[in-house]
Amino acid sequence: MDLSEIKAAARKAGFERRKSAFETVGPGQSAHLSEVLAGYRGVPLSGYMSIRTEINPLPAMAEAAAYGPVGVPVIQGAGLPLEFSRWEPDAPLREGPFGAKVPEVEDYFDPEILIVPLVAFDARGGRLGYGGGFYDRTLERLRARRATLAIGFAFDAQEADDLPLEPTDQPLDMIITETGIRSF
């Protein structure tokens, strides 16, 4: 098998584990995420609008929005880094690519903290996403400008023993699950 086939198999397994956790644990378990973000009050951050069986960061994002700018990713096109548009808890949203909602009014900024969705993660901070490379390109761009904290947000069940990673895959600085916080 080549690397793309190995990654596809790892993604499939990660999706299955995430779906099972979503059905068992439920979509929203953001107490630990809120705890971490409380230490960064006012620092510009981006979360995400959960789709399918992703763990839901919205409660923690709403708390953070009371102290500083919070955004959500907006896909600009294939092969391009993400841009982040300011999000408010009750602001109007529209359909974005891949079914994720995005703010109706575009107000872009560069976050210093990214809450990152994922399919699988490992004990060293490796992350396997959906395969488009959006977060890898984005983190590389942001980290070239200034320190940028990448926080993976996932279910415990999404942890994998060994992920097929490439040199372009950007590592997580921290992973937060429904049961705890790990820093790398």
Automatic annotation (TrEMBL):
Q: Which cofactor does it need?
A: Mg(2+)
Q: What is this protein called?
A: 5-formyltetrahydrofolate cyclo-ligase
Q: Which family does it belong to?
A: Belongs to the 5-formyltetrahydrofolate cyclo-ligase family.
| Record key words, sorted | ATP-binding, Ligase, Magnesium, Metal-binding, Nucleotide-binding
- Gene Ontology biological process: folic acid-containing compound biosynthetic process; tetrahydrofolate interconversion
The record ties this protein, via InterPro entries, to:
FTHF_cligase, FTHF_cligase-like_sf, NagB/RpiA_transferase-like
> Which Gene Ontology molecular-function terms are recorded?
5-formyltetrahydrofolate cyclo-ligase activity; ATP binding; metal ion binding
Q: What is its EC number?
A: 6.3.3.2
Recorded catalytic reaction(s): these are: (6S)-5-formyl-5,6,7,8-tetrahydrofolate + ATP = (6R)-5,10-methenyltetrahydrofolate + ADP + phosphate
